[in-house]
Amino acid sequence: MSAAPGTAGLVPARASAVAALFRAGALADLTVLVPAYNEAESLPELVERIAAATAPLTARTEILVINDGSTDATREVARELQRRHAQLRLLSFRRNYGKSAALAVGFKHARGSVVVTIDADLQDEPGEIPKLVERLAEGYDLVSGWKHHRKDPLVKTSTSKLFNFVTGVACGLRLHDFNCGLKAYRREVTQSLVVYGELHRYLPALAHLQGFRVTEEKVAHHARRYGTTKFGRARFLNGLFDLMTVMFLARRGTSPLHFFGRLSALFALVGGGICVYFLAIWLGGHGLRLRPLMLLGIALLLLAVQFVSLGLLAELLVASRDTAAHYQLLDED
Q: What's the whole-model pTM score?
């Protein structure tokens, strides 16, 4: 099967150098992880192209397809492909759980020391895999694809630019494309990332906040050929909430009372000041009547008590888990 337009030569140009890295032991076995939801039409071509792109690199390659509860013939197509490709493995969900769940399960079951993720819709180019893997050999732990010339509608590309800018500012990692489906990871990264909800958008940010070395590489991008996008408009609002989750977990996950305590102190300071003001008026001999400002002061004091309580409950949860497992070691004896 011929390569997509504009991508011919991508595999030969990198294959020999990357293959040498595998032979020398700088890189070990490879897993190409494919989350798939209703991609029966694109899966055969994708698997063929992944096999063609990885065959020159190493014989120790597996293609791991995670069927995310597809309602079309994705599972049956993957079963048929297994007969032609011995390196293909298939895991199927009983229902649709979402891309984050598919990646979490794929990371858990991947056998390779190098894991490459790629979307199943043929918008990502398998011929770029050697390029990303080669960057790992330079010392990086995660290489994220950058869809330099996106073949998506204007609304999607413009909102994506805003998302990438806000995420970069919030986490201190400046990438052009956090949410590209084509990424290469070292196994240490995939085993340390906790992926749920819709946190798959923030995997480079999560890895960066854990101390891993993250970079990006320009990759080709193609227009969708089959079906429609699986992500609706709700992803923008969900993405904002998930960014808040990432920042909270990364910066306050081991000391939640510090976060809730600061909010509590702020509410207590303002609410207490308001109540002291009315107390001074009463001590001065003036009568008091119920006022909106007085209600605000009391409400802020109640909020302060509630936030301290939340912080203490969160501290109990943190104290009951193995926090040492969340600290990434650079060297081990």
A: 0.73
